[in-house]
Specification:
The longest helix has 13 residues, at 152-164. The protein is built from seven helices and seven strands. The strands form two sheets. It has a five-stranded parallel sheet with strand order 1-7-6-2-5. With 174 residues, it is of the alpha/beta class. The relative contact order is 0.24. β6, α7 and β7 (170-173) form a beta-alpha-beta unit. α1 crosses α6.
């Protein structure tokens, strides 16, 4: 398959350490081999994969959709208002199963990519849980992720989570 499940140990190593946003030397000192060589030396995403940046256009995606290093994930969550002002979160999986970008996978932000033991919704999961979920989605060390959702902030949430765990090769579909 184009995007097979990645080796759990390799992905766990990829998300094992939190990225330092302030000290470039920390990245090298930590010897995080999961970062591709371009990122270890400080090259930005826009300098790799023909202009891959934190936002990609639909034209860019159409031109690169068949690139085996590109993985597309739908991050949709639907919120329904409840009496009293609260909201009920519902997985976007049913809509995904009805139609999605060809070759895309579905990122479950409610269960697979949240700490379900927390009393708060959408709590950031631990590194191992996050790594395992991303591995099941076919994300590896050199995967270029393109994230989308029916409401963009869900894609932005996964983008932030990836950045939190040091994975820079992700973009949101503009």
């Amino acid at each position: 398959p184009l995007h097979a499940e990645s080796d759990g140990a390799a992905v766990a190593a990829a998300f094992d350490h939190r990225r330092s946003f302030f000290v470039e030397a920390d990245c090298v000192a930590a010897e995080r081999k999961w970062l591709c060589p371009e990122h270890r030396r400080g090259t930005t995403m826009s300098e790799t994969l023909n202009g891959f940046s934190p936002l990609v256009s639909t034209a860019w995606l159409a031109a690169n959709l068949n690139d085996p290093s590109v993985r597309v994930l739908d991050c949709t969550v639907t919120l329904h208002p409840l009496p009293g002002g609260d909201m009920q979160a519902e997985s976007g999986l049913p809509a995904f199963e009805q139609g999605h970008i060809p070759g895309a996978g579905f990122a479950d932000l409610i269960d697979d990519l949240s700490d379900t033991s927390s009393p708060l919704r959408f709590t950031l999961p631990g590194a191992e849980t996050f790594a395992a979920a991303m591995g099941k989605l076919g994300v590896g060390t050199n995967t270029h992720l393109v994230l989308y959702a029916d409401v963009a902030h869900w894609a932005a949430r996964l983008w932030w989570m990836l950045r939190h765990y040091g994975y820079d090769n992700a973009a949101i579909l503009d």
